[in-house]
């Protein structure tokens, strides 16, 4: 398995800003988490897809190809980091609102409190940052 974190730099309010993917040896996603600006986390393992979240229908390709696109920043992450986000999303029962009172996203909380290594990988743009260039 491979584990990726992809930050999508955009201004769309209803679209996810961070995608976490577990990818099988065949190149297809097996699980996915989507983080939104408002702190919502949606997850799927394919058994519970909705109009808002689903697994890719085609192999995801190479991470270098994704990272080369200016609207994305892409990173390989560890299985432990993916599982931490998966477990965080599960507490929201598939779409719960997980933004803490501090206004920080769960990704930032995870990076600063629970897993310092993830902090570097979760340096997503702030909610007020509307640039479309990678950080």
Across the major sheet, the strand order is: 4-3-2-1-5
Strand-and-helix sequence, N→C?
A: EEEEHEHHH
Number of domains: 1
Which structural category do the helix and sheet elements fall into? Answer: alpha+beta
**Roughly how many Å apart are the termini?**
27 Å
Word description of this protein:
Residues 122-135 have a biased composition (Low complexity). It holds the Pfam family DUF6881. This is DUF6881 domain-containing protein. Residues 99-135 are annotated as: Disordered. The protein has one domain (2-121). Helix content is 24%, strand content 21%. It contains 4 helices and 5 strands; from the N terminus they run ββββαβααα. The protein has helices at residues 63-67, 79-90, 106-114, 116-121; strands at 2-8, 18-23, 29-35, 41-44, 72-76. It has a 5-stranded antiparallel sheet. The longest helix has 12 residues, at 79-90. The protein is globular. Mean pLDDT is 76; it is low at 96-135.
Would you kindly provide a brief summary of this structure?
The protein is of the alpha+beta class and 135 residues long. It has one domain (2-121). It is 24% helix and 21% strand.
